[in-house]
Amino acid sequence: MSASPDADGTQIDIDLLEKADEKLRKREYMRNIMRFYREEKREELSVLKAQVVDLRRELKQRVRAMKAALPPSKRSLLLPWKDVAGALEKEREDVESERVALQRRTADLKALVRDMRTWTSVNLTRNAMPTITTTWQNVSLPANPASRQLGKAWITQQMHHNATRAFSAFAFPDMRSSDTFFDVAFEATDARFEYIHRRQYVVDVPMVFMLQAYKKHLCSVLMMDWFGFQENTTLKETSGNTTLHQCLAEDDEWMNLVTGEFPQDDGSCLFVIQQIEDDEAAPTSCRQRNRMIWLDARPLPGERTQVRVLYRFAQYFDSHGYISIDDEAESWDYDVRHLPEEKKEDSFRQFVTARLVSINAKHQPNLNNHLRRMMNASS
């Protein structure tokens, strides 16, 4: 061991210092080694934990797959009682709803049968009438929607069925003729007067447009010759191929008209109209006329339409029955009160025939002008 003197004469052990320095270096080295070791262990632990998570996930998947592959036990098939109770309650509610719906439907069908039995007893005689001149009967409609729809369909289908017989009962020109034709007749029985119009003419509008005008403005078209055409829609109901129009005319006549549209195989169309005298859905005390109209429309080249019309209507009636000849003549602005009873009918017949001839002579040009004006306004 060597020693060297210091400035103050103190001896320094060099070997001892070297040993101490070496020991310190070893300790520093060991600390670094241990730090690296601990970090390595921490990383290894993290990797192991992640592997554990992955293995557990894989284990669950394998167990689930194995269970799915095995046949289920009876116990595993049983649902919790709450689920069973909930399902039974839902089924009970469905059954109850269906029961209520069936009860309502049964009540509706009973009402329909009752309405149609009553309605048929009133109107069935129309089927058995041997000639067209004896088909005037009170025509009614029930308020029940289902019965009402059947009633409208039955009335219009009966008119459609009788169309050929109706036109055959009166002479009309050949439909191939484009000449304008009109004729009027006045028939009287002990109970009433009846007016019969026969018309055949051509209008300068397509058939589809003309039928639309009748379906939307029926009352205005029918009353045009008396009060002028008014483009107010009187359509109240539409069901299937039928419509219902209602209006109170300027002379206080209640018009309640059901229509039916029947396209034919040859491209023509039959349009029928009938006054409903007794309507549960629209009761009235106003006076009315029996009205029955058959309209045969056929398309012509050049967007024109040939029209053949059989139009029958009777004298006014109200809740007390048909009005007297004095009042009927007065409704035409004609006075027969001063005449003897035996001369009233002939006098009124001559007057009303001349009046209707004058009206019919103007009907075709008036209708044609109104239809063309409507078509131009809509284009």
Overview of the molecule:
This protein is an alpha+beta fold. The chain has helices at 14-69, 74-77, 81-123, 145-161, 163-168, 207-216, 218-222, 224-227, 325-331, 341-378; strands at 3-5, 11-13, 140-141, 181-188, 193-203, 235-239, 242-248, 254-263, 269-275, 278-279, 288-300, 304-318, 321-322. The strands form three sheets. Strands 4, 5, 6, 7, 8, 9, 11, 12 and 13 form a nine-stranded antiparallel sheet that branches. Helix 3 packs across helix 4. It starts with a strand and ends with a helix.
Short description:
With 379 residues, this protein is α+β, with helices and mostly antiparallel strands.
List the defining traits of the structure above.
379 residues; Alpha-D-Glucose-1,6-Bisphosphate, Chain A, domain 4; single chain; 9-stranded antiparallel beta sheet
Using only C-alpha atoms, the radius of gyration works out to: 50 Å
Number of strands: 13
Mean pLDDT across residues: 81
The stretches of 5 or more residues where confidence is low (pLDDT under 50) are 125-137
CATH level 1 name of the domain at 157-378: Alpha Beta
How much strand content do the residues show? 15-25%
Identify the overall geometry. elongated
- Please provide the ordered H/E string of secondary-structure elements: EEHHHEHHEEHHHEEEEEEEEHH
Helix vs. strand class: alpha+beta
State the separation between the terminal residues, measured CA to CA: 131 Å
CATH superfamily of the domain at 157-378: START domain
Helix content: 40-55%
Q: What is the CATH fold-level name of the domain at 157-378? A: Alpha-D-Glucose-1,6-Bisphosphate, Chain A, domain 4
Number of helices: 10
Major sheet size, sense and barrel closure: 9 strands, antiparallel
CATH structural architecture of the domain at 157-378: 2-Layer Sandwich
